[in-house]
Structure formats: structure tokens, C-alpha cells
Design brief:
- It is built from eleven helices and five strands.
- It has 255 residues and is an alpha/beta fold.
- A five-stranded parallel sheet has the order 2-1-3-4-5, with helices on both faces.
- Helix 3 links the parallel strand 3 and strand 4.
Length: 255
């Protein structure tokens, strides 16, 4: 990829949380070779921003209002072929990374990574390369090469994954509905779809699946207010949230 202008990497940030956007803007602003050209808080704003500013790299969160993440990522990849999309999210690699790469992302980074990793990732994808951790790189080499299929949980949408996590904690449909501010009917529908898509028969099967596939890390969602990946607005930074993630304890499940 040929960079814009005088080799300055033009970066756009798409995340629905002002705290996260401000943190990323500050990190990127400290780099003389990078420039933030705009921010977006939902899918429609993201498309408009990319169309208007033509950034080299887009930092894209998974859980934003608007079009579903896979559809948005596919649209960006087909409509703006020179754009390099670096997914930066609270979702662990095992949850959505391979799906993001399949849909056209150039890299995948979790928000608990230090600033130097974010800068390295932006630099690498701007050069036309992929940014993958060592563990993800090995898995992606097999999966993207057609030698490995995605696990059932890796095909779920962010909302479906969230419901899986909460049901996997042993919460009832009513409890999940209350936590997510949705109706019990909506959660029951999600549950039925999860069982069908994952080839399971009961909520007990969902719980066993979460334990068997070591998905306890996804239960961070239950500690935060709102949707998966939402950042608290109580002044805590990303490092504090990462610390929370390391001390999650779930009855009967080792995190």
C-alpha cells in the first residue's frame, strides 16, 4: 500500500465510546508519523468518515450501533479496497479474530494491549501487512488456508456471543433480559437460535460448551454495564478494565 501524502499515516477511529476514542487519539497524536483524521461513533458515521477523509488505516470496534459488524466490515473491504482495517476491541482473539480476518480485516488487537503495540499494529497494517499475535497467526494460517473450520462460537454475532456468555454463567432467561435491557421473549429467541446454530439441546449444554471451550474470559461482559465491550464511564482506563478481566471469578468455572 502506498501511504498518503508525505508518508504520514492517516488514521480514523471508529468506536462508540468517547473515552476510548480520546485514549487512541492521544496515543496516535504522540507519533510524528501518524495523524488522526477523524472519529466516528456508529456504522453510518464510519462509512461517511472513510468516504470523506480516505484514511490509510481505520481502527474499528466490533460493538457499535448500526449495521452488524460483519456486514460493515465486508462493505468497507469491498467499497474501499485501499483501506486497511485494524479491529481494536475488548473481545478476546478466540471470540471474533478469525471471523474478522475472513471478512477483510488487516489485523486484530485487544484494547488491553500497551500503546506501543497499537502503534506497531497501525504501522504494520499501513505497510500492507497483516498484524497478528503469534498465537492468532498460527490459527489463522490454518483456518484461512481452509485447513480448519471455525468453532461454533466463532461464528456468532456480538449480541449472540453475549447471550451465550450470560447463559453460560447459569443465568436465567429473565436475568439475562434484565441485564441487557431486552425482553424475555427476545432472549428466548436468541437462546433458541444459539441452540440450533451450535447443535446443542439445552441451556445445560450451553454451560458445558462455555466450560469445555475455556470461554470464561468472555464473562467479562457480565461485569460491565450494557453490551459486550462497553467501557465504564467512571473514569477507569483500559488498563483498569484489563485488570478486572484478570480477576474474573465464576462459580464452578476457572477463568
Amino acid at each position: 500500500m502506498e501511504l498518503s501524502g508525505t508518508n504520514m499515516i492517516r488514521v480514523a477511529i471508529a468506536d462508540d465510546h468517547p473515552l476510548v476514542r480520546a485514549g487512541l487519539r492521544q496515543i496516535i497524536g504522540d507519533e510524528s508519523s501518524m495523524q488522526v483524521v477523524g472519529e466516528a461513533a456508529d456504522a453510518d458515521e464510519t462509512i461517511g468518515l472513510v468516504r470523506a477523509m480516505q484514511p490509510d488505516v481505520l481502527l474499528l470496534d466490533i460493538s457499535m450501533p448500526g449495521a452488524p459488524f460483519p456486514a460493515l466490515l465486508r462493505y468497507l473491504a469491498t467499497s474501499f479496497p485501499d483501506l486497511r482495517v485494524l479491529v481494536i476491541t475488548m473481545h478476546a482473539e478466540e471470540q471474533f479474530a478469525l471471523r474478522a480476518l475472513r471478512e477483510g480485516a488487516a489485523g486484530y488487537l485487544t484494547k488491553d494491549r500497551p500503546p506501543q503495540d497499537i502503534i506497531a499494529a497501525i504501522t504494520q497494517v499501513a505497510r500492507g501487512e497483516r498484524y497478528l499475535t503469534a498465537s492468532l497467526g498460527q490459527k489463522a494460517a490454518a483456518a484461512l488456508g481452509g485447513r480448519s473450520a471455525l468453532q461454533p462460537h466463532e461464528t456468532l454475532s456480538p449480541r449472540e456471543y453475549e447471550v451465550l456468555c450470560l447463559l453460560g454463567m447459569g443465568k436465567t432467561v429473565k436475568q439475562v433480559a434484565e441485564q441487557l435491557a431486552l425482553s424475555s421473549k427476545t432472549i428466548s429467541t436468541h437462546r433458541a437460535r444459539l441452540l440450533k446454530r451450535m447443535g446443542l439441546k439445552s441451556t445445560a449444554d450451553l454451560i458445558r460448551y462455555v466450560v469445555r471451550h475455556n470461554l470464561a474470559g468472555c464473562l467479562l461482559a457480565a461485569l460491565l454495564v450494557g453490551s459486550v465491550g462497553r467501557v465504564p464511564t467512571d473514569g477507569r482506563g483500559l488498563a483498569d478494565i484489563a485488570a478486572d478481566r484478570r480477576v474474573v471469578q465464576v462459580s464452578g468455572v476457572d477463568p
